[in-house]
Amino acid sequence: VGLSLSRESVTLVSVRRGQSVIIPYLYHQKYAFSCKYLSVWQSSDYVALSDQSCHCKSVLISDDTKGHIFTVRMDNVQESGYYWCAIHIPSAFDKRAGFFLDVTAGETILQLHVNSQNVTGSENGSVTISCYHRGRQYGVKWCKFGGQCITRASGRLDGASVEIRYGLRNTTVSMSRLKKEHTGWYWCSTEELQMPVHITVQQKKSRESPDTAESDQISASGKTFQPFDQKYILKFN
């Protein structure tokens, strides 16, 4: 049927030096109000983020306690490394999910990337995402975060129609028949690599109604981000 189960966390992401990347982490609802944080793996131990350990300009941690996903945005990344999205569990071991950030310098082609990790569409409309990749073109999958993956040229995810057009270096994913409940995190996947993409489905505007579709969103540097219940940022000089 062209479906498989998706991962619940990112394990390997490719990004160009100096750019930003967003990493989502799905957690159980019982941890909705627990402390979330990011740590880095150094010398066989977990190290709290600092100017020396992060190798990036800033880290923005946002927690969607209703959707049970917290995201980590790392800006101006400089070096590859292992990081851990974590949830603090008092009187027990913290919950951790590790990922490797593969930072590429110069004009070298990234192993997997997209034009934007934030895509907006309208109800009953469609969105198109271009996944640029190296390696086998037919190894590209399109997955719902914590849900299912489309592994063939067409399929359905939660009622939305998905079409995948495979190319040598560029695989295009189109999702149509969108509904508000299709808002959420998805990703392109090539074997071990993943690139998360957040899709926001807005209510279709009528000609008479004022333009208020983005009134509850946060815009920064020309990009649109979803609001979150909790948000905190770490900046490094």
Automatic annotation (TrEMBL):
Gene Ontology cellular-component annotations: plasma membrane
Instruction: Write down the SMART domains for this protein, in alphabetical order.
Output: IG
The secretion signal range is: none
Q: What is its main location?
A: membrane
Every Ig-like domain range: 107-200
Q: Which spans does this entry mark as compositional bias, Polar residues?
A: 215-224
GO molecular-function terms, A-Z: transmembrane signaling receptor activity
Q: State the UniProt keywords alphabetically.
A: Immunoglobulin domain, Membrane, Transmembrane
Per UniProt, subcellular location reads as: Membrane
Which region ranges are annotated with the description Disordered?
A: 203-224
Q: What is this protein called?
A: Polymeric immunoglobulin receptor-like
Organism annotation: Sinocyclocheilus grahami
Top-level taxonomy: Eukaryota, Metazoa, Chordata, Craniata, Vertebrata
Q: Which gene encodes it?
A: LOC107561953
